[in-house]
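User:
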Amino acid sequence: MPCKSEKRTINGHEYTVTQMPPSKAVPYHVELATLVAEVLGPMANTEANGQDAVVEALSMAGPALRANLSPARFLEIARDWTGSGLVHRDGELVNFEQHFAGSDMPDLYRVMVFIAEVNFSDFFVGLDLSGLASAAMARASMSPASVPTSTGNSGG
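Assistant: Predicted structure:
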């Protein structure tokens, strides 16, 4: 099955994200699972408890990542994910240093969430996590200025 692509409008720009190939995604699956291990237990019970339980469990992922991920490693991941050739903004390849500079820097967090949704939502077997990250961030009381929600729809 070929890698899927999805589009989303974020702060007036159309972003297109194509899934990473397995050789790139698998190591991130392992790293992300390790970083948010405390969230995976509650996630196991979400099918029985419904979508609110999924959002609740995902709301713990942000604090877990902040506690377990150094700023240097986050920067490394952000550069790798956005500079992979698999992310486009308004039809052109994303240039990390150009597209997330100045007033566009807060978009980085929304784009990173979108990249994670496209690449890793299937990691949580049986759960459709598409679009739930925004609700989870709101529940985790993350500042809208630092991690605003995206607008638009995902589409393949």
